[in-house]
């Protein structure tokens, strides 16, 4: 019998599936639930246990990890008769790795405390590739003792794992992360269109730019997307639109001005209205191409 904590995993999407599989590889017992049968089949094939409901998944778990798209989904799986709080055992630790509003995390931690359940907000950055390679950056909010307990689990999922402050702090840092990523992708997309219209060898140009001050993890990760116009979703425009709403709203609440971020948020929103919401966020390139006269 393993002495490692038993883990329940709720949400097995683009990020959740490879992350849960990395925990299985690390020796953890993982029981999972999601709405898509093919994702449950994938978990079972990787050595995990499939549950028929959230209640069944969490009832014996020491740690419950959630990875769902947004605040409404977190609230749907956490609250109510069939939710996590009503069915997890007292003393369990919820690690919510979804990207949601800071206030949603604060409210969840308060509600869970009344049930004798602890909570960390622990959103991630690194996309699908980072999830697969277990090199995610994980920004955490909550109590230090709970963070220390969860750290070995998080070590199996990422490389940069930092306690950023009290409940909601992880989500605040994630919002800032998404602001930086969106602005960076937009700048890269504009550079790509500029370079191509100038007749420059794009592959050579991006290689040399990425070796200098203009280089970034975004450019490294998304260079091939730009070159091949491959926008298979690693992180969908729809989700980045949600995140830009979180950061602009949170910034308004604290009195921070985000002039460039506000513009990029509108550009992300425009892609959704043009039918590109299901594409990878590197598809911001398509928006720049349209503005530059291309017919896509």
UniProtKB/TrEMBL annotation:
Gene3D superfamilies membership: N-(1-d-carboxylethyl)-l-norvaline Dehydrogenase, domain 2, NAD(P)-binding Rossmann-like Domain
Coiled-coil intervals, chain numbering: none
Keywords noted in UniProt: NAD, Oxidoreductase
Record-linked SUPFAM superfamilies: 6-phosphogluconate dehydrogenase C-terminal domain-like, NAD(P)-binding Rossmann-fold domains
Keyword Oxidoreductase attached: yes
6-phosphogluconate dehydrogenase NADP-binding domain segment(s): 6-165
Pfam families: NAD_binding_11 (PF14833), NAD_binding_2 (PF03446)
InterPro entries according to UniProt: 6-PGluconate_DH-like_C_sf, 6PGD_dom2, 6PGDH_NADP-bd, HIBADH-like_NADP-bd, HIBADH-related, NAD(P)-bd_dom_sf, Tartro_sem_red
Keyword Translocase belongs to the record: no
Domain named 3-hydroxyisobutyrate dehydrogenase-like NAD-binding: residues: 168-286
Family listed: Belongs to the HIBADH-related family.
Protein known as: 2-hydroxy-3-oxopropionate reductase
Organism this protein belongs to: Streptomyces rectiviolaceus
